[in-house]
Design a protein that fits this description.
single chain; alpha+beta; 60s Ribosomal Protein L30, Chain: A; 5-stranded mixed sheet; about 55% helix; rod-shaped
């Protein structure tokens, strides 16, 4: 056989070997790229979830800031009631008392019925002003609801006959708060129309912010507690 034939056979074998080497490298490269692509897709998915999570967190923070700003503006919203001649604000316990019904014999001793028409009219005037104020709050900010606490208070006797936790005091002061609320309802005063939930209670001969002059504990107290909706 001629030497030239050996050359071409060797050359052919070399080319075949190189082809298989290139084929193997190609397969390895494609596999490597596919694996990297899979890893990148996984990273992208994880980052997408992180981004979505951050967006949710950002939205939540913005909502919390908005709610905080609304609460900070409560003082301005409550200014009409603070400047009222009907109610007096007690800042140390954050509640209002009705001026014209403070220290007045609204009820006969031991009774739970408002004693005369003049006192009823004073109570109705206070209730209508309170309703008007709550209506204004709803008009200014509908995303905030309120808890209205109507509290009955009682004066102890001059010799402090009753203990601060006397059951008769709690029961009677609650019934008097109920009598006031029923008077308002019977005359068309409905606070629940204005994003308001109503709670009645009686503190009897106890409670925060009691007056030093025991006679001035014959009164009704009002608390208006804002509740920001989520």
């Amino acid at each position: 056989m001629k030497k030239s034939n050996f050359f071409w056979i060797g050359y052919s074998d070399l080319m075949t070997s190189m082809f298989f080497v290139m084929l193997v490298l190609f397969i390895v490269t494609v596999g490597f790229l596919l694996n990297k692509m899979s890893e990148n897709i996984s990273i992208i998915d994880e980052n997408t979830e992180l981004i979505d999570s951050l967006k949710v967190t950002q939205t939540g923070l913005i909502q919390e800031i908005e709610r905080a700003n609304k609460l900070l503006n409560m003082e301005a919203l409550f200014s009409p009631l603070n400047e009222s001649n009907t109610f007096e604000y007690l800042p140390e316990c954050r509640k209002y008392v009705m001026k014209e019904l403070t220290g007045v014999e609204i009820f006969e001793p031991g009774e739970t019925v408002i004693r005369n028409e003049e006192l009823k009219q004073k109570a109705l005037s206070a209730g209508r002003q309170l309703e008007q104020f709550l209506a204004g709050l709803m008009e200014d900010e509908q995303s905030i609801s309120y808890l209205l606490v109507i509290e009955g208070n009682m004066a102890n006797t001059w010799d402090r006959q009753y203990s601060s936790d006397n059951a008769y005091g709690y029961r009677t002061s609650y019934q008097r708060a109920l009598a006031l609320y029923e008077l308002w309802q019977q005359n068309g005063i409905d606070f629940r129309r204005y994003n308001v939930e109503v709670m009645l209670c009686g503190s009897g001969f106890s409670g925060l912010c009691r007056a030093d002059d025991e006679e001035n504990n014959k009164r009704f107290s009002i608390q208006i507690i804002p509740k920001v909706s989520r």
